[in-house]
Amino acid sequence: MGLRTAVLLVVVLLIAALAALNWGLLATPTVMSIGFMQVTAPFGLIMLGLTALLGIFFVAYVVYLQSSILLETRRHTKEMQAQRDLADKAEASRFTELRTFLETQENTHMARNAERHAALLARIEQLETSARARAEQTDNSIAAHMGQLEDRFERRAAIVAAPVVETQPPAVGFPPAV
User: Could you tell me if 59 and 42 are in contact, meaning their C-beta atoms sit under 8 angstroms apart?
Assistant: First the structure.
C-alpha cells in the first residue's frame, strides 16, 4: 500500500470517526439558505453527503484516469511490438543480405583461387615438360659423349692390340721370313 493511499485512508477514517462522535450535532436541523430560498435541514448531514459525493467523484475520476492510462499503455505496447517486429524483420533482412554478400565474396574468392590453382598447375606441368626435355637432351648428350669416348678407347685398344709389324726393306736375295 502506497503512502498516498494510507494518507487518504486515515483522512476518511477521521471524517467517519468525527461524524460518528458528533452525529447528534450533524443531524440537528437548522435554517440555511440555498441562494433563492431558506430551508430547514440538517446542515451537517448535507455537508457530509456532499463530502461523500465529492469522494465518489474523485474515485470515479481516478478509475477513469487509470483505465485510460492502461488502455494507452496497451496501445503503446502493441505499437512497440509492431515496431519491434519490423525491426526484427529488417535485421533479419540485413543478415540475409550480409550472408548473400559474404557467399558471393566467398564464391568470387574460390573462383579466383581455382583459376590461380589451375594456372599454377599448368605452369608446373610446363616446367616438368621442360625439365624432362632437358633431361632427355642431357641424357642424349652424355650418351653421345660416352659413345665418342668408347670409340676412342676402342680405336686405341685396337691400335695397342694390333701386332706391330715392322716393315723393313726386303733383303736382297733372302726369302722373306715367315
Answer: no
85 pLDDT exceeds 90? yes
Q: How far apart are CA 177 and CA 165, in angstroms?
A: 13
pTM of the entire predicted model: 0.46
Sorted by where each begins, the domain ranges of the chain are: 17-117
Distances (CA, A) of 152 to 7, 12, 132, 141: 134, 141, 30, 16
Angle, to 10 degrees, between the axis of helix 3-21 and the axis of helix 43-161? 170
For residue 28, the one-letter residue type is: T
**CA torsion, ordered 108, 110, 111, 116, to nearest 10 deg:** 130
Instruction: Give the H/E segment covering residue 40.
Output: strand 38-42
Burial degree of 92 (CB within 10 A; 0-12, 13-18, 19+): exposed
